[in-house]
Amino acid sequence: GKVIKWKGVHLGLAVDAEGYVWYTNARARAISRISPDGAIKSFPLSTPIARLGRLAIAPDGAVWFAEPTVVSVTRLKDGVFTRHTVGPPSPLGSSNVGPFGVAVDPQGTVWASLQNANSLVRIRPGAEMTAFDVPTRRSGLGDVALDGRGAVWVLEVAANKVARFIGGRFEEFAVPT
User: Fold this and answer.
1) Which of 1, 155, 160, 174 could cross-link with 142 by S-S, CB 3.0 to 4.6 Å?
2) How far apart are CA 110 and CA 126, in angstroms?
3) Is the separation of the CB atoms in 110 and 104 below 8 Å?
4) Could you tell me the pTM of the whole model?
5) pLDDT in tens, 12-66
6) What's the CA gap between 68 and 49, in Å, rounded?
């Protein structure tokens, strides 16, 4: 196969239904994809600086990713970026909110962790946004994952916990270290 040399910061990675591999490319300030035949196409961001978090693919083929630089959970569909701002930007182009982890459920609802805001945010189709505070303060939220029963799981990195959110409630599980 073709050897690809990575020359950037890549945190987000997902594969769509057609077999395209999507990834965040902070150094190039772009979201990029590799086709099944190895061709790479990039979709440049409009920001002069790019800090990027995780990335997920929605059932409609849209690519969702965390974009802390502009404090947004952003959707890329048909080459068009749609930003869903989740907090106020700082003067330095970063955020105290810090969106990072992203997951999308089968109905197209997006879930994202807001690291420093200590919240899990839900973006429903139609752009309705709701934030849910995690019980442990300053828990340093990381990745988000969904299970088959509709629960949302989120890492609480600084607290050494994993939290499950279902039915409007959090349950936290200590992780031995």
Assistant:
1) 155
2) 11
3) yes
4) 0.88
5) 899 999 999 999 998 889 999 999 999 999 999 988 877 888 999 999 999 999 9
6) 10
